[in-house]
Amino acid sequence: MSTYPQRVADNILPLSQAETLPEAFGEWYFTGITEDHEQAIEECELCNQEQLRYHFKIKNKNTHKHLWIGSQCIIKFKVAVFEDDRLLDEKETKKKLNSLIKKMRFTSCMNALRQLAQKENHNILDNALDFYQKNKYLTPKLSFVIFWRLKSHGIDHSPSFFKVSLKGSSTFHMDFSMEPAGLAIM
Fold this sequence. Notes:
Layout: H1 4-12, H2 21-25, E1 28-36, E2 54-60, E3 66-69, H3 71-76, E4 82-83, E5 86-87, H4 90-120, H5 123-135, H6 140-153, E6 176-179, E7 182-185
Antiparallel strand pairs: 1-2, 2-3, 4-5, 6-7
């Protein structure tokens, strides 16, 4: 079994022109391309960490080879991250990567809500989808109904990705009750 530094070297040096890790990492940059695999089933092609949900594509500026890695490897190995052709420092890099993860989580939530709205074709669910898209959070009442219906339909979702505002939920008033036919507005 190889050590962590050896695995990293074995994965990046053959794809680089440099012969040492510090020089090799100087050839790589984050492309800005991400992928959400919907489940934590992927592996980092740099350090071989398993159970990644999100991949970040890095590319070698000399060899044009690429790797799909986890965000922590971008930070740990100081892979160059740019914004508007400006190299970001470590703090800015973390902020950008967190922003990208937040965006992927929001997209995941929207996809789950769209699937639910298509399955049930109910006004409450359509309104919840519109409300979440506009406000980027759910009210407690909406979250109860949404999570209940997502689970009952077996729609893959991560409840922790949804923002639920506990502040005065006066923006969206609906009372929900169960009836034999499903949801009802009272």
